[in-house]
Model the fold of this input.
Amino acid sequence: MTTTEDVPWDATQFLPHEAEPTLERLKDAAATCHGCDLYALGTQTVFGEGPPRAEVMFIGEQPGDQEDRAGRPFVGPAGRLLDEALDEAGIDRTRVYVTNAVKHFKWTAGKGKRRIHSKPNAREIRACRPWLDAELEDVAPRVIVVLGATAAQALLGASFRVTQQRGRAIENTGLAPFVLATVHPASILRAPDPETRESEQRAFVEDLRTVKHLLGQ
Ligand code: URA
Ligand code: SF4
Done:
């Protein structure tokens, strides 16, 4: 039996044809990607952003509501928290490349005009992977930071548990010299009370200090 899970439909055919496309070329090509159904749901493709040879790449799950409107990753509340944490950890934000495992915003309609974030499934993550692989090849970061379970499982396997393995440098992944997983900044924003939020934020900054150390900064 054929299920939609088996359909080998992904972003590959939308990649630029040249051997080593620049990030700009990749971004242009991704703008018209129909590699999965999500192209019809989001306003636009939200490609990664940052300097071409950034030493560190942060990978989130998918763009949120504000990112979908702006066409830029991590510009909403989670992005602001990330910016603050990078600043506190002493990592220069202008030297960081940020992207997502999935490049379209997946949502369901909420009350009024609200669009509620909906988790991308395994098929969508797989479909979008060629873009992430192309970004990784181009940027070739020294450190990859995966933010939250979706990105962690996409890159490190389905059995990876952020809660148990966060903040530790992982070597020999074949992805970059070092990969480090931590929580998603959006999860910190969902903390049930201010104390929890503060301690989670501190732990997040601590993980970013480890990243800074791995960068030799
Ligand atoms: N959350 C993500 O995972 N990525 C973004 O770009 C914004 C919020
Ligand atoms: Fe293409 Fe990824 Fe958007 Fe799907 S989510 S249409 S694979 S860019």
The chain has one domain: 4-214. DSSP finds eight helices and seven strands in the chain. The chain has a mean pLDDT of 95. The longest helix spans residues 194-215.
